């Protein structure tokens, strides 16, 4: 354990990477998942079908296989995302996004966006039919029905399933360990290789994960309480 | 539910035209994407027969079949273990004794929050390597999946028992049954019926997570795939074939879950455990979010 305490900055940086992946992939999956959900419930049949096919395919693929596609298979057809590195050197300077980080974020977002889509869709589906009918009956326009009646309720109903999706994403960032990212799981492997006190090292890393998960669920609980309304 | 009724009216003539335009644009985009992928594959020589040949060569097909069997065995053992684990701790969480309830709660919440891969790495490096190794990588995967899925199933069991109407337990107590009898003879049998679809869809999760064994070189589909692309340098083709196998097996499992839901459970909506740490989620929207 001394080894871990003496190199604690490595642990902090590894969890920083975990959180960084979580934030980057979380934002990207929301950005992809919301339009996907819109396509999935929209009026255009082809879009509905296309989105449904994408969601079914990716949801049933193990995340590890998505990683293999992005990290191992894409370079075979000359897609390495190396251009991202060279572009930044003169653009940002300080914040450096490596091709590894980008690929891991891409794989995580491709996977998670399908679950975001399903969570949002279930939120929209949970709004009782009568609500929209009543809104139309009192003469609200389509825009009014959506913004005043359907979406506010759908948004509230989306928080709990979206939270479980984001928590799963937080845990799924560990898969990046197998593809060249030194995040928490890879760092634990590094310490496990050097010590005999595997159990203590594992407990330390596991408890930090538990803490991070608690932070996410506490944040969602705050949102849910704030948005709670009598139904 | 038919969402189209909620969100929009029947389209008028203008909207119909607009939808047609969207339809055509979507189809064009999709066709363009597929063409671009095919061209890209072709330009890099990835459509060459030699790279696909292993998947029609009997020895390699047999190796992949063996990998699939290993994967299924791992997933199956893990689910059996997870059912026992979930039953013990799910019932433990509902116990009236604080000394039982609290440890069960801690165990369930801990294993739900720890990534499966972290668990596998720990088991492998602590007990699977070196002279005094007691676990093969196969068992590291099975144990890690057992405790994770067990913790999730514990919540499913709890939700299932709570979903049995209260009058059932009250009636059982009224005819003089003891606590254990009420649980074993009245509540659990009815709860299992409600839980079946959730349990089957948890099998999909377990099956998908067996792929993580790749990191600790456990047997299974991903391991066979790694060997094949190590030999032929056909990463793209292996990724496509192995993924297709996973998707097909998972779709079969999902179809079984839907069938069971229709045949045995009836029209009641599927159970979903509350998301981690959320206790007052009474929105009823947790279903459909999907477990990951």
How would you describe the overall organization of this protein?
The complex is a heterodimer of chains A (231) and B (292). In chain A, 79% of the residues lie in helices and 0% in strands. Chain A has helices at residues 2-6, 8-41, 45-59, 63-73, 83-91, 99-125, 129-137, 142-172, 184-194, 198-227. The longest helix of chain A is centred in the first third of the chain and has 34 residues, at 8-41. The mean pLDDT of chain A is 88. Chain B has 292 residues and is an all-alpha fold. Chain B has two domains: 13-47; 50-265, Orthogonal Bundle (MetI-like fold), CATH 1.10.3720. Chain B has helices spanning 3-7, 13-43, 49-52, 58-93, 98-113, 116-127, 137-163, 166-174, 179-209, 221-232, 235-265. In chain B, helix 8 packs antiparallel against helix 9 (179-209) and helix 10 (221-232) runs antiparallel to helix 11 (235-265). The longest helix of chain B is centred in the first third of the chain and has 36 residues, at 58-93. Chain B is flat and about 75 Å long. Chain A: Keywords: Amino-acid transport, Cell membrane, Membrane, Transmembrane, Transmembrane helix, Transport. Chain A: One of its GO terms (biological process) is amino acid transport.
Lay out the secondary structure.
The complex is a heterodimer of chains A (231) and B (292).
Chain A: H1 2-6, H2 8-41, H3 45-59, H4 63-73, H5 83-91, H6 99-125, H7 129-137, H8 142-172, H9 184-194, H10 198-227
Chain B: H1 3-7, H2 13-43, H3 49-52, H4 58-93, H5 98-113, H6 116-127, H7 137-163, H8 166-174, H9 179-209, H10 221-232, H11 235-265
Helix pairs in contact in B: 4-5, 4-7, 4-9, 4-10, 5-7, 6-7, 7-9, 8-9, 9-11, 10-11
């Amino acid at each position: 354990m001394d080894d871990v305490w003496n190199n604690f900055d490595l642990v902090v940086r590894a969890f920083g990477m975990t959180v960084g992946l979580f934030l980057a992939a979380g934002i990207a999956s929301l950005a992809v998942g919301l339009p996907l959900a819109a396509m999935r419930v929209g009026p255009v049949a082809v879009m509905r079908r296309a989105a449904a096919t994408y969601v079914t395919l990716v949801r049933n693929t193990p995340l590890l296989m998505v990683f293999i596609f992005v990290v191992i298979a894409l370079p075979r057809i000359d897609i390495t995302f190396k251009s991202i590195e060279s572009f930044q050197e003169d653009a940002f300077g300080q914040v450096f996004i490596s091709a590894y980080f980008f690929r891991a974020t891409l794989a995580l977002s491709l996977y998670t966006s399908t679950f975001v889509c399903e969570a949002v869709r279930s939120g929209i589906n949970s709004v009782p039919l009568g609500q929209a009918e009543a809104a139309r009956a009192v003469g609200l326009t389509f825009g009014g029905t959506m913004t005043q009646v359907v979406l506010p309720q759908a948004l509230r109903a989306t928080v709990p399933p979206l939270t479980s999706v984001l928590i799963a994403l937080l845990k799924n960032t560990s898969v990046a360990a197998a593809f060249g990212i030194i995040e928490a799981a890879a760092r634990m492997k590094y310490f496990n290789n050097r010590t005999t006190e595997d159990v203590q090292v594992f407990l330390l890393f596991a408890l930090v994960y538990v803490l991070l998960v608690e932070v996410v669920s506490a944040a969602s609980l705050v949102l849910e309480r704030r948005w709670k309304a009598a139904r | 539910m038919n969402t189209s009724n909620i969100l929009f009216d029947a389209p008028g003539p203008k909207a119909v035209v607009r939808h047609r335009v969207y339809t055509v644009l979507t189809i064009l985009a999709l066709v363009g994407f597929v063409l671009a992928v095919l061209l890209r594959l072709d330009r890099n020589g990835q459509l060459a027969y030699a790279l696909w040949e292993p998947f029609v060569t009997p020895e390699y097909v047999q190796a992949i079949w063996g990998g699939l069997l290993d994967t299924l065995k791992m997933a199956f053992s893990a689910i059996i273990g997870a059912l026992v684990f979930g039953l013990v701790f799910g019932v433990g969480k509902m116990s009236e004794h604080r000394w039982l309830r609290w440890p069960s709660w801690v165990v369930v919440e801990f294993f739900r929050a720890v990534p499966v891969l972290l668990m596998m790495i720990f088991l492998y490096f602590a007990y699977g390597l070196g002279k005094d190794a007691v676990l093969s990588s196969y068992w590291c995967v099975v144990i890690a999946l057992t405790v994770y899925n067990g913790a999730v199933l514990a919540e499913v069991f709890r939700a299932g028992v709570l979903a049995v109407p209260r009058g059932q337990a009250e009636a059982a107590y009224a005819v003089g049954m003891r606590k254990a009898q009420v649980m074993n003879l009245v509540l659990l049998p009815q709860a299992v019926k409600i839980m079946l679809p959730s349990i089957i869809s948890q099998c999909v999760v377990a099956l998908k997570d067996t792929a993580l064994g790749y990191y600790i070189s456990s047997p299974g589909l991903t391991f066979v795939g790694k060997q094949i692309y190590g030999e032929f340098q056909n990463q793209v083709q292996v990724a496509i074939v192995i993924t297709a196998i996973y998707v097909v097996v998972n779709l079969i499992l999902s179809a079984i879950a839907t069938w069971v839901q229709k045949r045995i459970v009836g029209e009641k909506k599927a159970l979903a455990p509350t998301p981690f740490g959320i206790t007052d989620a009474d929105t009823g929207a947790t279903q459909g979010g999907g477990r990951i």
